[in-house]
């Protein structure tokens, strides 16, 4: 079982535990804010399940119908997570609106807050693990799941503050008001997750620091060639795709040109994890004046 899959299963199991704790906190207090927090946690379960499915699909090898692999499946999961975050925020706003017009004292607020705090601590620790390991494993689904959990942590913090203020002041309307304020923050989180995922679905180029690393590898390893140009990059899940044209002297043999390409591909694999490199070899009369990557003479 891969590390990605283990983390996705862990998210699903933790989501069940956290949801149970938050529902218990709401049942004890009757707090609209705590109910809203529990509603947000139900989305955690759905997104964890979506991430699990996406990671399994993305890990499938390339086939006849998907010759470039299934890497983009993770982006669909991340988009779904962002949409569900937004849906959760709208549900919270709905509950907050009802509570604003009919505020009521809370039952056992301190016990409810203590239980909710325990669930929040679990979410915070796991969110840190998911984001850190998701970036290490280059998994958009895990990173999105971690950010979603962190949004839940922010939600819980705001909810706790609202309940405490309501308890101290006796202004029970603060309970739904705080729930509404936190829902706005969750809306922004959902928007951010969706936009980050769409960039991958739209074949956005890799970050500039990675592009510079790619240029450096080409320049250093393509000795014997004249130049490289028309560099294109994109990322899909954990995979990075690189393609460019390599100009070689017209009299160079196919064997020697192929040796240069092999050398570039080997070093590219060391420099960029899970990279797929495609090189189009051209004779020197195809040289260009712009977009050129100069080749070191060695």
TrEMBL record:
* Pfam families named among the record's database cross-references: Cation_efflux, ZT_dimer
Q: Which residues form the Cation efflux protein cytoplasmic domain?
A: 207-283
Q: What GO CC terms are in its UniProt record?
A: plasma membrane
Q: Does the keyword Membrane apply?
A: yes
User: Mind listing the UniProt keywords for this protein, alphabetically?
Assistant: Cell membrane, Membrane, Transmembrane, Transmembrane helix, Transport
Membrane topology for this entry? Multi-pass membrane protein
Q: Which InterPro entries match?
A: Cation_efflux, Cation_efflux_CTD, Cation_efflux_CTD_sf, Cation_efflux_TM, Cation_efflux_TMD_sf, CDF_Transporter
Cation efflux protein transmembrane domain location, by residue? 11-202
Report the sequence similarity comment from the record: Belongs to the cation diffusion facilitator (CDF) transporter (TC 2.A.4) family.
Q: Please identify the protein, giving its name as recorded.
A: Protein p34
Q: Which organism is it from?
A: Sagittula stellata (strain ATCC 700073 / DSM 11524 / E-37)
